[in-house]
Amino acid sequence: MRINLADRNIARAAEKAIHQGRIPAGTSSAFNFLPAHAARNFASHEKALDAVVWFAEERSRMLSKITTQHGGGRFRLSPAEGAQYEQAGQDLALASAKRFSIGGNDLETLIRPNCETELEGLAEGSNRSLT
Questions:
Q1: pLDDT tens column, 75-128
Q2: Fewer beta carbons within 10 Å, N or C terminal of the chain?
């Protein structure tokens, strides 16, 4: 439920309605079915998900190592460090794909439904704004 509880009158009316077993007047609600949709085919994407997680963890670990070498805090990578980080990221992506026996098609199959759902949501949102 969504309701403005910052307004005292609305808050009192909402509390009264809830105690009476009613939904407060002026509330709106929404249900997010995306997690259930995403989980439905979770097992079929296990290898690709494992590869993505492994890649992300290793790349984060690599950046943490660079940060530690700089003594922590904020800093900018030098051009050489930036190039090294990017190359290492590409190497990790290839190593991850090899380690989990996946290819580009596996990643596309993993990502496509989420992209399509997002695009549908954006299209619906823009249609709503036009009406």
A1: 888 899 889 889 999 999 999 999 999 998 898 888 877 676 666 666 666 544
A2: C
Sign of CA dihedral 98, 104, 107, 109: negative
Residues 24-55 pLDDT 10s: 777 665 555 555 655 667 778 889 999 999 99
Amino acid at 9: N
> What is the residue type of 23?
I
pLDDT beyond 70 at 129? no
Question: Would you give the DSSP letter of residue 100?
Answer: T
Hey, what amino acid is at 15? E
54 close to 96: Cβ distance less than 8 angstroms: yes
CA distance 128 to 99: 45
Query: Which structure tokens are listed for 58?
Result: 């290793």
Angstrom CA distances, 47 to 10, 65, 103, 119, stand at 50, 27, 10, 25
pLDDT, tens digit, for every residue of 49-67?
999 999 999 999 988 888 8
Beta bridge partners of 106: none
